[in-house]
Amino acid sequence: MGKYKKKGKTPQAQDGDVRAKKHLGQHFLTDESVAQDIAETLSYKGYNKVLEIGPGMGVLTKYLLKQDAEVHVIEIDTESVTYLQEHYPQLEDRIHQYDFLKYDLGTVFRDEAFAVIGNFPYNISTQIVFKVLELKHQIPEFSGMFQKEVAKRICEKEGNKTYGILSVLVQAFYEAEYLFTVPPSVFNPPPKVDSGVLRLTRKEDFSLPCDEKLFFRVVKTAFQQRRKTLRNSLKSFDLPDNLREDIIFGKRPEQLGFREFIDLTLKIQPYAISNQQ
């Protein structure tokens, strides 16, 4: 995918706009056409509720509200919350002033399905993905804007240097698509790097045939020493020598796709369970 081509003029900041706060990692999207295209990345299939993270001044929110869905927003910035209450009264009681990473979303959605979307702050974007993985049973679709490098990494396939923990864990449960690149000029203030928009669509069968917690542990441990073979990087599992002679242990983590990591976890699982007893 190439650079995003602007379709219209970028609005200038006006009096009464929310001031971007560096400590919150805020870079407000100002290009209407980009916002509209991000809103249209969701399919709205199998759910009718959407949660936008960090709406700021609502440039993306306005296009979400045009869809046939119940839109909720979660925003930690008091100034942004006040702005949203004044300019988007149709949100009513669906503006949640909380930290997404710490908030129990069960109080809002209970066991209902909902999509997650947003122009995510770079400084917490990977943590947002990890929380989405925790809530995957409720989140069939996830899309939004990341630092380009992070978005590419999430969607990367095995055999590449940027392939890593996030790539494996996300792709085990979701189909990941890198959609388009967005330049710094469409933000206020402009970031120093390009951004990338991606979409994650949960697989029809997203259950693993192995222990999920062990799968996460195996993947994370393997990539902590990514230049070493799995025979060396997984020493902390205290596996028997005959298992460690399996051909898969002679590979490096970036050579394994998520299916091979599942196979690896299945090989380790009997020994990991016995060691816990």
From TrEMBL:
Its EC number is 2.1.1.182. It is an enzyme of class 2 (transferase). It is found in: Cytoplasm. Residues 34-204 form the Ribosomal RNA adenine methylase transferase N-terminal domain. InterPro entries: KsgA/Erm, rRNA_Ade_diMease-like_C, rRNA_Ade_Mease_Trfase_CS, rRNA_Ade_methylase_Trfase_N, rRNA_adenine_dimethylase, SAM-dependent_MTases_sf. It catalyses: adenosine(1518)/adenosine(1519) in 16S rRNA + 4 S-adenosyl-L-methionine = N(6)-dimethyladenosine(1518)/N(6)-dimethyladenosine(1519) in 16S rRNA + 4 S-adenosyl-L-homocysteine + 4 H(+). GO terms for molecular function: 16S rRNA (adenine(1518)-N(6)/adenine(1519)-N(6))-dimethyltransferase activity; RNA binding. GO terms for cellular component: cytosol. S-adenosyl-L-methionine binds at residues 27, 29, 54, 75, 99, 119. Pfam families: RrnaAD (PF00398). Keywords: Cytoplasm, Methyltransferase, RNA-binding, rRNA processing, S-adenosyl-L-methionine, Transferase. Its main location: cytoplasm. HAMAP family: 16SrRNA_methyltr_A. Belongs to the class I-like SAM-binding methyltransferase superfamily. rRNA adenine N(6)-methyltransferase family. RsmA subfamily. Specifically dimethylates two adjacent adenosines (A1518 and A1519) in the loop of a conserved hairpin near the 3'-end of 16S rRNA in the 30S particle. May play a critical role in biogenesis of 30S subunits. NCBIfam families: ksgA. This is Ribosomal RNA small subunit methyltransferase A. It comes from Salegentibacter mishustinae. The lineage of its organism: Bacteria, Pseudomonadati, Bacteroidota, Flavobacteriia, Flavobacteriales.
